[in-house]
Amino acid sequence: MKRIGMLTSGGDCQALNAAMRGVVKSVLNSGEQVEIYGFLDGYKGLIYSNFRMLTWSDFSGILTKGGTILGSSRTPFKTIKDPDENGLDKVDAMLQTYHKLRLDCLVVLGGNGTHKTANLLRQEGLNVVTLPKTIDNDLYGTDMTFGFQSAVDIATDCIDMIHTTASSHGRVFIVEVMGHKVGYLTLNAGIAGGADIILIPEIPYDIDKIVDKINERNAKGSRFTILAVAEGAISKEDAKLSKKEYKEKMKNYKYPSVSYEIADKILEKTGKEVRVTVPGHTQRGGSPCPYDRVFASRLGAEAGKLILKGEYGFMVGYRNREIVKVPLEEVAGKLKMVDPKSAIIKEAKMLGISFGD
Amino acid sequence: MKRIGMLTSGGDCQALNAAMRGVVKSVLNSGEQVEIYGFLDGYKGLIYSNFRMLTWSDFSGILTKGGTILGSSRTPFKTIKDPDENGLDKVDAMLQTYHKLRLDCLVVLGGNGTHKTANLLRQEGLNVVTLPKTIDNDLYGTDMTFGFQSAVDIATDCIDMIHTTASSHGRVFIVEVMGHKVGYLTLNAGIAGGADIILIPEIPYDIDKIVDKINERNAKGSRFTILAVAEGAISKEDAKLSKKEYKEKMKNYKYPSVSYEIADKILEKTGKEVRVTVPGHTQRGGSPCPYDRVFASRLGAEAGKLILKGEYGFMVGYRNREIVKVPLEEVAGKLKMVDPKSAIIKEAKMLGISFGD
Amino acid sequence: MKRIGMLTSGGDCQALNAAMRGVVKSVLNSGEQVEIYGFLDGYKGLIYSNFRMLTWSDFSGILTKGGTILGSSRTPFKTIKDPDENGLDKVDAMLQTYHKLRLDCLVVLGGNGTHKTANLLRQEGLNVVTLPKTIDNDLYGTDMTFGFQSAVDIATDCIDMIHTTASSHGRVFIVEVMGHKVGYLTLNAGIAGGADIILIPEIPYDIDKIVDKINERNAKGSRFTILAVAEGAISKEDAKLSKKEYKEKMKNYKYPSVSYEIADKILEKTGKEVRVTVPGHTQRGGSPCPYDRVFASRLGAEAGKLILKGEYGFMVGYRNREIVKVPLEEVAGKLKMVDPKSAIIKEAKMLGISFGD
Amino acid sequence: MKRIGMLTSGGDCQALNAAMRGVVKSVLNSGEQVEIYGFLDGYKGLIYSNFRMLTWSDFSGILTKGGTILGSSRTPFKTIKDPDENGLDKVDAMLQTYHKLRLDCLVVLGGNGTHKTANLLRQEGLNVVTLPKTIDNDLYGTDMTFGFQSAVDIATDCIDMIHTTASSHGRVFIVEVMGHKVGYLTLNAGIAGGADIILIPEIPYDIDKIVDKINERNAKGSRFTILAVAEGAISKEDAKLSKKEYKEKMKNYKYPSVSYEIADKILEKTGKEVRVTVPGHTQRGGSPCPYDRVFASRLGAEAGKLILKGEYGFMVGYRNREIVKVPLEEVAGKLKMVDPKSAIIKEAKMLGISFGD
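Predict the joint structure of the above. Result:
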């Protein structure tokens, strides 16, 4: 008999349900008796002992369902050790819930912040298995995260739709893609959507290079230009600022997001009006793409295997086309970023894409 | 032999190409000899005699293609009689182009503004046939316009995707749908997407009613609320202002759009953070949906028939499930709006949807 | 207090759930107390008193869900008066279930066969309200049925995908679209997908006319030809046979379906290999399109209104853009078919589409 | 100055255009002068010197376009050395075309058969670079081929749509997925679509195991069962036959395809009617998915790089997440198959999926 706790934490994404279904199916199909405690709304559910007993039928038919049947919330790691507004010690509360329910292990699905807390719980002696969920694909220790390819599909659809209107009107368009610190999503959606310019946090941009590219396209007879811009795109000047200076600068920032600033500068330098489209949270939503369903199901099945073997303290990740277990201490607190010198960046440049550098 | 001029004007939308293909196919299949002059970028092409001779092959394979192969631009009716920056009389220039090319007629695809200018050209003696294009479905004289259903599909997709993330996080979400003056698009996408609250220009909203609905849902255990908000949604107070007063007020408007204002007010009154998603120009883009392809093709075919018969001065429209010809003077300058007392509004209310009124 | 029975009968289609949700929401939102008895698998559930009590939450989140939460089955009208294999009188059993549960009314969602049985139950004194469900749009008394537009979307997608491979290989392709007796679905998907030849039951085809069209396209340089063929497409010779003669002929029919016969004949007469694609039951599946969601929700809401008023014996239909109640006796046993002389057929021909006639 | 010949051979698939665009963009962006000879309809174009000079604009806007702008055809390798019907030596003719046009190299996009011929041309002294195209992902020497993920998406969509109708009617459904010899496509679409049983050529099935699974599901209360069956699925008995015996057996095969045979046997053994859906060529069609667009673009760019460096005799492949050059002699004539002992098969079984073994 295994008593398994389960929670999804951080921004939701596609294939969370597929992954949980994978875990549960693989444990149940092994013939092992199981009790599943689903904690609601991320770590909050664990802290406040807010859970639902889940049965087989809760996981039936959810392979294709977006979101998470457990709900999610953001519980920032940097305040996890602070007491809550009623003075409750949150870490302590999580340990108590775990022990009170006599759980054998805790399955945690989440991204970067989630993994820091998961590692903390491991250090506190809990049996933890994690699954790498994020549309950003920025988790260290795994080549891929689920949610990523689904988000690429949605952001690409968006660029595709903008393409027809951009070409009809001969306009400059910016599609703002999710990603504050890491540009994988923007990079892939940008290439897939045939963007002419791609701006990602890892490659600070020079506005003049952007303008050059627009002018070059005009000179060649291309009436329109499409930019795929990550939320965290940053100019060369801003990239040179210290954290403090940058924070100071952003205090008086007048734009809703960086895309609008870039749009303004392009208008100023070229006289061309720029339209901005922000698909926003749609990038996290909807049914997972087949790639993510297969991937999340496989990860889930392997997590189930670890549980059956009693091997804890790992994230189930993907490296060199193999599903592997990665020690949590290797994952927590690290970010995987786009290498500006990587093959894909070079290839994108060979295709004529400008990164504004 | 027919010499046909053709242009697409105003914001682009889906099925413009399908409609033009319909016109050209039906004329060519009649056996009539044809020369087709495609004016580029809307009325601008007619004004400045900027055109391309089009052949059969230009219309092959474009049934499914978004945008317009002729390009488009906005040429505001209210300045159409003013000379351009070089002193050129624009109306005069259009007449000259038409006569110089010895055109038999001009086929114009466009929305409200476009139809005013088309009617003006008719009054000046040109043979004009028009096709009703707009994602807003706000053209007078026709039950339906092409582009509308495709835009409904896209806006609904957007709400669908937001649904999974809204329910996972228990959040309030606003999806801002296109439509400055008319709410058909928001109304239909809102019902199709299962929005809980729909705000359209024709039904001014009371912020307290919106808050009531959100609270009522919470009380019933629904963790999230989704609002479909038209760009032109307006509060009861603002709706009472005179045009001048409203303009004055908007001068210092601090929000990028009305959705952000509503989001702010909801936060203020409920303490709930609200996320705003703006699909924007994607609603005009991409391949037309099958409904629009059939509809635009049929309208195009009937326009071709009018041309063959030499019957001019009409918009080809759709009324009571029949394709009809509507005199341009009946169409021009009028807006078709959602009737707050119409059956669909009542039905939506029966479904539990709040209009904030 | 209303005690409402509900069932879905016949082949399933999209938006059944949306329609039922509409009925239930509109009744519940009226403030009326309600008990909902969901009979499982169509009339079978009513016959064998197999039902589930449904609550509000059963209808939450099903707007976008394909299929039917009640299950369905085909209960042929022509055997409805025959006793079942255990000698049970089926009609009698249905009446007994109805009365035993003291139902106020029965809501029935279905197509042609379903309506005949519904009308029979009405004649037997039951309070019946029906909703027009079918991908064939062949129900008499309503301009539109839900499921139809969703099926058009899927069949069109299929033709779109075949287009790229057909043009790459210069091949003749047949896409077989659902519809044994009525061609609306094939007609609309064919036009939307840009099919070159459309064969529907209402317009018997001449194989030589089909071959002519293929040759004509080749002569013009079009390397490929796409046929949208209804399951019930019929040749002019077969159309002349009496029912008996036709049945006799079909006894030894060697093809899986008519498309394969047509493919064979084209090969014989042109030497061109023809590929057949049969999307089959996919045309009934998946999430309803936005059009169907809105339409089914509206019909459901109006059905709810009839129930609240106690007006029974009607199908809720759609005529001239208005939702209307149609007496069941007007609907039952009649088929709505494509008129070969209708405007849409003429327009399709103007677009160059051949119907093989 | 580079004179580049280019052709696409074998069954078409998604992202052929994206890959060619990648090659051409990367060569042109290098500043090198280029002449591009596009041979039409695969090797046929090279044999009969049937080509079109391609310019930059031919490759603009084709990233998202399905099919191949060059056309394709199957030219079986086993007859490549035989003279054609007019006595022409085909290999010789290809060499002549190549030399007559003074080509620097030949870029060939294709699958298994195509690579055998490409290797032959290399042996005959031509400079050849190839790109791995196939929806089957069965090319030796590369972890992935373009077209595969797009086909997975389409086949999965098909299973998704069947799911709603299968569950509504409580039926057994077979979705027949492309793949005569190799099961990657069926395997991935099956997992992604939540199929209960997956049959692939690499794992011969036992019909009784299939029946057991169906009965087991019924016993658990699951009303329906979905099988994803590869075109080349084979029973244990048939797998034991020699090639000759098997051919003999298939001479009198009465089914259109193996799915219908399996359907028949299930009916016989369970009394359950089984519906078969064959998405067929749709799996090769339509716009490439974002994954394939990025992947094909990257491969194309690297092929361009090889051309610029004058490195020939390679397929551009993908191994361990790196794009690599693979000597053609290593690729030609080998098949990559699903290993029945691989991790993904084990994981699928952990998820409860039966392979009928």
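The mean pLDDT of chain D is 96.
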